[in-house]
Structure formats: structure tokens, C-alpha cells
Amino acid sequence: MFKTVLMAAAMVGALSLGACGTTPTDRGISGAGIGAVGGAVVAGATGGSVGTGAVIGAVVGGVVGATTTKDDLNIGDPPWKKSCRERQRRGEHISCRHKPRR
Predict the structure, then answer these.
(1) For 85, which of 3, 9, 53, 68 is 20 to 30 Å away at the CA?
(2) Is the pLDDT of residue 71 over 70?
(3) Within a 10 A sphere around the Cβ of 73, how many other Cβ atoms?
(4) Burial of 90 (0-12, 13-18, 19+ CB in 10 A)
(5) Are 75 and 94 in contact, with CB atoms under 8 Å apart?
(6) What is the pLDDT of residues 1-42, one digit of tens each?
């Protein structure tokens, strides 16, 4: 019973965090990463093969991420798009000058 509840909770969590980003590629990549971690955790907790769980999770997360739109499921931009210059291009008024190293 505990394993079933744990697996259901992990699947709901993985699907709710399916992907972040605005393009299908961004969403597919981030969804695959999140799914791989979730699949490995679930497999490890239930006594299964961690590698197999990671592969299955990556495939499911990647498909969910690539097939949903940002309007279906949106948890923000992926980390690789949060650079200072990218944030300026998106309209944020921030300074990208770094303090010189001593």
C-alpha cells in the first residue's frame, strides 16, 4: 500500500512539474531531466532498477514537456535562460556590470 501511494504521489509531482520553458525544445529537455530524477527516486524507493526508472522517467517527462504548451503548464523559464543579458532582453531594468575582482 505504501509503495502504491508513494508511486502515485511521485507521478503527480512529476506531471505537475513536467517542464519549464517556452519552446517545445526547452520544455522537452527540462521535462526529461525532471522525469529522470523522479523516475530514479521512485524506482529506488520501490526496490526497482534506478537506471530503468530514470530512463522511463526521462522519456515520460520529455514527452509531457514537448507536447504541452506554456499555457497548459507553466513553471517559468529554464535556468539557462536567466542570464543577465537575457533578462535585459525580456525587458527587466537591471545592470549587468560585475564588480571587478581584487
Answers:
(1) 68
(2) yes
(3) 17
(4) exposed
(5) no
(6) 566 656 666 665 555 554 567 788 888 898 899 899 999 999
Which amino acid appears at position 28 of this protein?
G
Alpha helices for 1-102 (secondary structure H): 2-16, 24-46, 50-67, 84-89
* pTM, to two decimals: 0.55
In what helix (H) or strand (E) does residue 80 lie, and over which residues does it extend?
none
Backbone angles phi, psi at 30, to 5 degrees: -70, -35
Q: Which of 59, 76, 57, 81 is nearest to 19 (CA)?
A: 76
Residue type at position 55: V
From the CB of residue 77, how many other CB atoms can be counted at a distance below 10 Å?
Answer: 17
Q: Closest Cα to residue 30, out of 82, 80, 78, 81?
A: 78
Report DSSP state, residue 91. T
- Determine the straight-line distance between the first and last CA of the chain, rounded to whole angstroms: 59
